[in-house]
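In the laboratory, one determines a bound structure by crystallizing the protein with its ligand and collecting diffraction data. In a computational setting the workflow is compressed into a single prediction: the sequence and the ligand go in, and a structural description comes out. We illustrate the idea with zinc ion.
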Amino acid sequence: MAINCDEGNRGIIKKLLRQRRNRMIKITVEKFAKMYVENNPGEKFNEIKSNLKTALSRKKAGAVCGDCGQPIWAAGSAIVGFDGCFTCITGESDHSEDYEVSE
Ligand SMILES: [Zn+2]
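The predicted complex, in structure-token form:
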């Protein structure tokens, strides 16, 4: 019984750690657009900003990834031009150090 308990707790801790690690960095639309154009010269700030806003409002309205049905990753969807979640857009499951836009 004791072993089962420990395993249960470890499972919960692992889950918590994973959630924490997978938490994306929240950034405003304005900041993300600025950062994006700085890293991608040639992209238009206003265009990126409006794409981000549209993606964010689609996410708020409950838009889901066309591949797997997870909530969309607004920042990524705005850049790639289709509604997808982080995993389907990047092919990675580790969300850490990636940005998600908020208002
Ligand atoms: Zn997906």
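Residues 24-102 form one domain. Keep in mind that any predicted model is a hypothesis to be tested, not a measurement.
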